[in-house]
Here is the input.
Amino acid sequence: MSVNDTAAALPAANGGALPIGGGLPSNLLLRFSAAALLWFAASGVTALWPDAADAQEWERTGEFASLLVVAAGLLVLAALLAAAIRPAPRSRLEAAIASLSASVPWLIALALGVTGWEILTAKLNLLPRPFFVPPQALLEVYLDDWPRLLDCFAASLRLLVTGYAVGSILGVVTGVAIGWSRPVGYWVHPVLRLIGPLPATAWLPIAFFAFPTSWSASVFLIALASGVPVTVLTWSGVAGVNSAYYDIARTLGASPRFLVLKVAVPAAMPHVFVGLFMGLGASFAVLVVAEMLGVKSGVGWYLQSGPGLGRLRQHVRGPAGDGAALLRSGDAAVPRPRPPARLAEGNAQMVALENTDTAGMTIDVQAVSHSFELHGAPLPVLDGVELRVEPGELVALLGPSGCGKSTLLRLVAGLEPPSRGSILADGRPIDGPDPSRVVVFQDPTLYPWRTVRDNVALGLEARGLLRSQGHRIDKALALVGLTGFEKAYPHQLSGGMAQRAALARALVNDPRLLILDEPLGKLDSLTRLAMQSELVDLWRSSGFTGLLVTHDIEEALFMATRVIVFSGRPARIKADLPIDRPYPRHRGDPVLTELRHRILELLGLAETW
Here is the structure.
């Protein structure tokens, strides 16, 4: 699917919401009119229905009803504009009307909620006061006591931001450290399991005893409330990062610092944002409790100073002499915080670029055996594999599924050391990943948070070469036919295009050995046939050495200079078959057909063909 195809499909995924740029609905006038009618009804209920006999008279009832009329009038105006104006398709005006229209159900629900609130409190007096007051009571407080409220909101905001910022930063850092480092997890995880289940308010007595001021104690409590969920979710995100993301970056020369900052943290961001959201909710609850119990400013203190917000004005600015010490005009509602402590100053076709004369790499696999641990016992995978790959060869590895072909590729890439034996690259032992040996996996393994261009630039960025060799990115994209898709994201690409991007990410590093682990295995048959020819063209024009794992015999015979046939696990080499046919090859070549039959015999499948 192309970028344009994906963009065209987005409105359909909106679940019935009005698509911006897709035209306005025919019932737009009716929707706005229904919302306006309900807001007019809420105003009528507020102004015309008398209050309950046992309820007091609310001074701001008229002003509140007027606000409801204004809201209804704005909706009527929006309905008239939507009916009279025909905005140009995809214009800003159409987008604004569409966005407002999509909010109409919420506006209707809000009007019904306000009406019900008014009836249950002011008109029928069914809910106990001071805990439940009518909406005009809140308006009364906001209008009559707004200077003090503003100061309290500012004080609460300062406290919330400070505690939430401290908790979030420490939570992200701690979560990344636990998820990345086993030693850190060993020491921090038990502590987290101890304090995590406890609500932050359980630490109130300790906090107010241990900290010198109630403000600093409140900061600690809010930081604790926000930091625990952020830590846990960040840790979960980092621990759950796809290991192939790390493998790709390691083979491209990434340092541990790069792996943490450019791979682990971005990949874990969805979990981090969930933790930040959960921490914010916990912070609000702790903020109000802390201000009620200790801090002499803020919204919690404001709520605590009277029996209920709806009649708070009577207790703060009520009868003469009531609260006089609080009400002097010169008194500050919020005490100034101490000054902070300071330290002493001190789908296009791939095309070949100019030949870079890349020298292929020689690979020597010398008596390599490898095993994994399964249920406490070793599971042999490779057994005494001996193999030499000459510079510029394209060697295909064939064998039963699970016999160890991909494991051999990981050993050659340096992602794991062999259990026994050695592997040499140009006569030197392989002791780790190196950007001269790049892997292309069966899955494209593109980073979803990066554009195509940024994905291709990964290796250059990891090695600090992006500024000096950034021009190679455009050449690599042109090489695989992705010019014009630089700003697309992986989810906007088809399977073949994503695999092309993965190839470009490998080729931009000018590798001497390209390790292909079933790179075409998940493509449809037509795309796979086209990509086989294009891969051969890339190999012939670039000169690198290639190692290809595949389960497709025709693919191996069409592409490779040699085919290595493995036995079942533990894998041993059963045959080393040279393919002495010129390029470009024809799939109906009788020599290839004969070789195909021989490989089927080696795999024990000749009787079915």
